[in-house]
Amino acid sequence: MTANFLSKVYTKIYKTKYRLHFIKITEDLNNIIKESGIKEGLVLIQTHHTTASLWVNEDEKNLIGPSEEIGYTADLKKILDKFASPMDDYGHNDIAHKENENGKRNTHLCEPDENGIINECINGHAHAQAMILQTSISLIVSGGKWLKGKWQELMLVELDHDRERQVSFMIQGLE
Question: Mean pLDDT in the chain?
Answer without folding.
Answer: 95
